[in-house]
């Protein structure tokens, strides 16, 4: 099944840290991960964090192929992730399924290594660069209640916030 992706300013929990996952390898967890991928592909995203579907757990799914048929899948599931190494810089356009219609240049590290649990609860380390590194940083931010807007200048952030408030008032932001 697909979930509804909640939008920025409509759900305060999007801006709060999510809770550590303590139970692994359960049917519920496997189902949730399947449903998160289904939701992400349906929304044409390359990453989705559980808080975006109003589930406040430190869990995120990524596939930098976006599920495109002619692109090799590149799936990474991160539970309770933390960045343990980061290097270099990259700047590129970034969007978010919780802030549809807004894309901005965002500075990120070029390469990161993340320590996380896999679905069985084993500790794994995953390294990525370029788009994968960007996706991992964006999604881990979500688990800390941080949206990509936090990486913009206060002025840009305020302009976007004002536009969204208008969309909200017009009933076009739900
Ligand atoms: Ni996002």
Sum up the structure in keywords.
174 residues; alpha+beta; Peptide Deformylase; five-stranded antiparallel β-sheet; two-stranded antiparallel ribbon; 3 helices; 7 strands; globular; binds nickel (II) ion
What would your notes on this structure say?
The chain is of the alpha+beta class and 174 residues long. The protein starts with 26 loop residues before the first helix and ends in a 5-residue tail after the last helix. The chain contains 3 helices and 7 strands, in the order H-E-E-E-E-E-E-E-H-H. Helix content is 26%, strand content 26%. It has one domain: Peptide Deformylase. Strands 1-2-3-6-7 form a 5-stranded antiparallel beta sheet, sandwiched between helices. A two-stranded antiparallel sheet has the order 4-5. The mean pLDDT is 97.
The parts where pLDDT drops under 50 for at least 5 residues are none
CATH architecture: Alpha-Beta Complex
What class would the helix/strand composition place it in? alpha+beta
Average of the residue pLDDT scores:
97
Radius of gyration: 16 Å
Roughly how much helix do the residues carry, as a percent range? 25-40%
CATH class: Alpha Beta
Q: What is the first-to-last residue Cα distance?
A: 20 Å
CATH T-level fold name: Peptide Deformylase
- How many strand elements? 7
CATH homology-level superfamily: Peptide deformylase
Ligand catalogue: nickel (II) ion
The coarse overall form would be: globular
How big a fraction of the residues is strand?
25-35%
Could you spell the SSE succession in H and E letters?
HEEEEEEEHH
Main sheet: which strands, in order across? 1-2-3-6-7
| Count of individual domains | 1
